[in-house]
Design goal:
6-stranded parallel beta sheet; globular; PGPP1/Gep4; HAD_sf; YqeG family HAD IIIA-type phosphatase
């Protein structure tokens, strides 16, 4: 059970993802969470740094879709200026939104990565769909909502079990 919470890769932020390596591995699509993955949960728009990164993503030949558990107003107002398709109220980790995202991208799971900051929603949902999962450190944990804080508590329990089984190492300790 806990193995499904293990991401394929862990990075500090989206900016640490090597797009050339992903492209060489046949990845052509990126499904990404929004809050605390791309920007802080209370940041209404993309930062200039994120806009540059998204331009690089597109120039490298990737298609992008945002899949968020947040509401349509929040996700739509963020995604519209960037011209990025999105799915709101996604109910991650259920598979429905991931299937819809793959249809929007026109890609198969083995051609797609899921980037997110939560093991209980982004990683679990992506792994269940056969996506390559990338876990980023949350940008602004202090701004998280109640449900995310509940998920973080569950993540701490899961991490303790994974560490005990020797399946999770803190960065730089392996």
């Amino acid at each position: 059970m806990f193995e499904r919470l293990l991401p394929n890769m862990r990075v500090h932020s989206v900016y640490d993802i090597d797009l050339n390596v992903l492209h060489a591995q046949g990845v052509r699509g990126i499904i990404t969470d929004l809050d605390n993955t791309l920007v802080g949960a209370k940041e209404p728009l993309a930062t200039p740094e994120l806009v540059i990164w998204l331009d690089k993503v597109r120039e490298a030949g990737f298609k992008v879709v945002i899949v968020s558990n947040n509401n349509e107003t929040r996700v739509g107002q963020f995604a519209a200026p960037l011209d990025i398709p999105f799915l709101h109220a996604a109910r991650k980790p259920t598979q429905g939104a991931f299937r819809k995202a793959l249809a929007i991208l026109g890609l198969k799971p083995d051609q797609t990565v899921m980037i997110g900051d939560q093991m209980m929603t982004d990683v679990l949902g992506g792994n269940r769909m056969g996506l390559y999962t990338i876990l980023v450190a949350p940008i602004s944990p202090a701004d998280e909502g109640v449900m995310t804080k509940v998920n973080r508590g569950l993540e701490r329990i899961a991490l303790a079990r994974l560490r005990k089984r020797g399946m999770w190492y803190e960065e730089g300790t392996k």
